Amino acid sequence: MSIDTGTAAKVAKLARIKVEDDQLPALAEEFNRILGFIEQLSEVDVDGVEPMTSVTPQRLKRREDVVTDGGYQDKVLSNAPDAREGFFAVPKVVE
Fold this sequence. Notes:
The structure is a single chain. The chain is mainly α. Helix content is 36%, strand content 4%. It has a domain at 20-44. It is built from three helices and two strands; from the N terminus they run αααββ. Its EC number is 6.3.5.-. Belongs to the GatC family. InterPro entries: Asp/Glu-ADT_sf_sub_c, GatC.
């Protein structure tokens, strides 16, 4: 895939970047180099390679998935301008 100056201008406009007309050929060439690098990466065989979370081997911290009510309903409702029966009270908007 090759990027021309028209496409580079369109990308700059979409990115809300002001690029002068005389700088468009250089921008298009830079886009082409980036796309070339991406094509080069796609040639690498990664079959059988485990995904990594970091460059150093480490296990992710895990916790048991337990459903709780949080245990601090009173603290949360203390910030509400109007709370009734353990819930936030809001004005009626639909009749």
